[in-house]
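fold-stage: in
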Amino acid sequence: MSDVLKQFVMPSENLFGPGAIQEVGKKLTDLEVKKTLIVTDEGLHELGLSEQIANIITAAGIEVAIFPKAEPNPTDKNIEDGIAVYHAENCDSIVSLGGGSAHDAAKGIGIIASNGGCIHDYEGVDQTQNPLVPLIAINTTAGTASEMTRFTIITDTARKVKMAIVDKHVTPLVSINDPELMIGLPPALTAATGLDALTHAIEAFVSTNATPITDACGEKVLQLIPEFLPRAYANGTDLEAREQMVYAQFLAGMAFNNASLGYVHAIAHQLGGFYNLPHGVCNAILLPHVCRFNLTARTERFAKIAELLGANIEGLSKRDAAEKAISVIEALAKDLNIPSGFRELGAKDEDIEILAQNAMLDVCAATNPRKATLEDIKQIITNAMGPVVVQVNQNEAVTVS
């Protein structure tokens, strides 16, 4: 029996389905706010989506300001700029619009709005004293689940490290997942965010802090993603696939928001912070390598993962069945054209030492089922670097495994 107190945290209200964004004005009215700051990225702003949301909100009698500068990997400077706009516009609430980056930026701004100081003060677990200003998160991707979690990831530009802020106070009050907003997502982003959700489910399922509640969430994710992620990738207008991926990523969020994560995220945060790489792609590359490292600690669970992902494990030993899980993950990543390794994205061998050192300090490492040494982490990163490409001459290159 565990003597560690368990908890289950998520937003108090969560809306799903086509047209769900039409409810944002009413939800803000219920919160009795006067002026809200929409935090979004430049791409969505240029597409006019932030104005569409602003019109819904103003029709409800609430004033709006827009901060369209959320960066793909939001930084400490990004948060400083956002809080300056929040105060200058006399806002009393926030609506985040986008994927994980917009939600994380909004959470970071909300932390400072209600607690003061700078974002670095809140790195770690439950470092805030006061609840966030009212935050409604409108999601536009199916992967990060940041619209419903207590996790906020902000890059410290001085250290080139992603700070993990895990705090019950940063959980949004309301999340909105409208699959119609995801129809235009390009295939590469669909793949990266979808495999991010798969990573959440698997890391939560093998976490040292897993519970029957988080297991139930994760198991459903492992059934949904193999069917609906390839469909959404192949045909971005497939509304059923988009809607089912909404549920998959949300359930994965429910799982990891409470069971936490492991070395995939602990290492991915470093590669993302150091090289400004897409988080979902980092997770997708690392996932099979970390699973292989964790296999001996959770053999039975990985065998179950293989079965849930659709692998035929009949007649296999637990160990051989567990290995099948890794094969399925690798095949799915290949089908979705995930890069073969980090060298392909510009990562350098000379940085492995500092990346590994920082990964050992990441809060997500605490719940990994197998404890690693620094050398273990370095080896995982080395394995994930991928093939070496040697330039023979101007017209020919040779890949060396």
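fold-stage: in (second)
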Amino acid sequence: MAEIINLRRARKQRARQDAEDQAQQNRIAFGRSKAERSLSEAERDKAARELDGHRLDGDAPKR
């Protein structure tokens, strides 16, 4: 004979699991501290400045 389950409990458990999965994805996507974000932004800015510093005069971007 099949196991009898409470559908209300099963539905709530599935909703909890879905919420936990979404929270895990958000932690991965947005889980960096302010210091980490500012450090990576500073590194990006420095790399862009260094790249622009190596640009030749004839290769200047047209604005």
